[in-house]
Design goal:
single chain; 440 residues
């Protein structure tokens, strides 16, 4: 009998602490942002309660790409070597195609690829398992507790100051227990109860702006032509029928591919489009893909949808991209609306914000200072990505730019630098730079 893969095994998290126990910090959500925050806090000697509504092994609907930004934290948290032994696809470049079918391949920086720091593509079940298992180890070693299968049924506050949570063991109708801490970190994704409390209930601000939220749908396939092997390109296609949005192919290694589609919710509603039938139509009928999928098979039960809260800047808001703090509480990752508006990647920003939130809790500062540091670190990149997203809604710009890039190596080099460098990203919005690069 074959040995069970680690990501298909349960994670032992120990005894559930008695109701009314007190901690230094409560972390709600055991994905990358929450696991990172809990790990960094525990490494600093803090007593943490980590609460996760799922039970491992568990899946997470995602595009499954893990960018180079994530790998420094993966290393710092002690899981990089084990990750590299896990079946995965090593990303060496990105293929972009325009609505008219023209394509350009953008290689990732060679030095990053050689150092294995360019990025991976692997199922989130594998990636999240590694981070949560490591967080569990660190939390328990430092006197904290970890609870799986627990739904947060209430977030407590005392005159606007977050003081702890109420949870249902085994779900909302399960045994109720209460826990308190001077700090609570919300890392529960786009439906995070801490985010709802901080943004909607206390601040009376808009939690969901459909022009800054994306709908995503993904399926796992095998046998897709051009996606063989364990290293190569991931693909982003701006297909005519999907604009404003895109279709992706992210190989995972071993012939398995994450195939998905995403579109801004507000624009999707205006056009009355549904993602699942749109994707089926592209796979069956689009000239670029129908032959590639001719002998491919979808893995049954893998078609799932979710939402991505974009980190795009909001006009007129003092807290960018969206309020991420209240007295006694900080938000990270998707709960803080930090998904890249152009690529849809959120894991890297979840890890960055998880570490940052942990540091603010350790220093006992948080609040507005956290919001300002968060936007200072991520704002320029998220703002540029939002501009690129808006540009990508215009078919003629995509056709012109990708066509030009496919013929001019200097533009391909520029795009490689843009992926690797925040300074290079700024060039995209310099009119003189674009005129000089694209027209001459």
């Amino acid at each position: 009998m074959a040995e069970m893969a680690f990501w298909d095994q349960p994670i032992a998290t120990g005894e559930i602490p008695p109701s009314n126990s007190e901690f230094d910090c409560i972390v709600v959500g055991g994905g990358p942002g929450g696991s990172a925050a809990a790990s960094y806090l525990s490494m600093a000697g803090k007593r943490v309660l980590l609460v996760e509504k799922g039970v491992w092994p568990r899946d997470k609907v995602c595009g499954d790409a893990v960018g180079g930004k994530s790998l420094g934290h993966v290393h710092a948290l002690g899981v990089k070597s084990k990750l590299e032994k896990t079946p995965h696809f090593r990303v060496t470049g990105i293929v972009f195609s325009a609505p008219n079918g023209s394509e350009v391949t953008v290689p990732l920086p060679e030095e990053d690829v050689e150092k294995m720091e360019a990025g991976y593509s692997l199922p989130r079940q594998h990636f999240d398992w590694l981070l949560f298992e490591r967080a569990t180890e660190l939390v328990l070693e430092n006197g904290g507790s970890v609870i799986q299968g627990a739904a947060v049924t209430a977030v407590h506050d005392n005159e606007g100051v977050i003081t702890g949570v109420e949870i249902g063991i085994g779900g909302k109708r399960g045994e109720i227990r209460n826990y308190s801490a001077p700090w609570t970190i919300g890392a529960g994704g786009y439906q995070c109860p801490v985010a709802r409390k901080v943004v909607k209930d206390l601040a009376k601000e808009n939690l969901v702006d459909k022009m800054h939220y994306c709908g995503g749908y993904r399926e796992y396939w095998t046998g897709v032509k051009g996606c063989e092997g364990n290293a190569g390109n991931i693909e982003i296609h701006f297909v005519d029928s999907i604009i404003p949005g895109y279709f992706w192919l992210f190989p995972l290694g071993g012939g398995r591919v994450n195939v998905g589609i995403g579109m801004v919710l507000g624009l999707m509603d205006k056009q009355r489009k549904k993602l699942k039938p749109l994707q089926a139509d592209v796979i069956a009928n689009h000239p670029l893909f129908k032959e590639r999928f001719a002998d491919a098979e979808m893995i049954p039960g893998t078609g799932k949808g979710w939402q991505l809260p974009f980190g795009s800047p909001r006009k007129g808001e003092k807290n960018q991209p969206r309020r991420a703090y209240a007295p006694g509480a900080l938000l990270v990752g998707d709960a803080a609306s930090l998904v890249d508006p152009f690529s849809g990647e959120g894991v890297g920003n979840a890890l960055v914000s998880g570490e940052m939130a942990a540091r603010h809790v350790i220093d006992n500062v948080g609040g507005r200072a956290y919001q300002e540091e968060l936007w200072a670190a991520l704002g320029p990149e998220l703002t540029n990505s939002y501009k690129m997203q808006k540009m990508s809604r215009r078919k003629w710009i995509l056709n012109w730019f990708v066509g030009k890039a496919s013929r001019k190596p200097v533009i391909q080099e520029m795009m490689t630098e843009m992926i690797a460098s925040k300074e290079a990203q700024e060039n995209l919005h310099s009119k003189w730079f674009l005129v000089k690069t694209l027209l001459f």
